[in-house]
Amino acid sequence: MNSTNMTNTGRPAWVEVDLGAISNNIDIIRDHLSPGCTLCAVVKADAYGHGLKTVANMLQKKGVDCFAVATVEEGIAVRTLTGDAMIIVLSLVWPGQIETVLDYGLVTGVSDPEYAKRLSEAARARGTRAKVFAMVDTGMSRIGFLSEDPDTPEMIRNIAGLEGLELLGLMSHFAGSNDVSPEGIAYTDMQEQRFAALREKVLAEGVSLRICSICNSFAAMTRPSAHYQLVRTGAVMFGSYVDTLKPRFGFMPAMSVKALVMHIKTVPAGTVVGYNRISRVSRPSVIGTLNLGYADGIPRNWSAGTGYVLVRGCRAPILGPLCMDQMMIDLTDVPGASLYDEAVLIGRDGDLEITADEMGEKTGSFFDTIVTAVSLRLPYVYLSGSGGRFPVVRGRD
Question: Is 115 annotated in the active site?
Answer without folding.
Answer: no
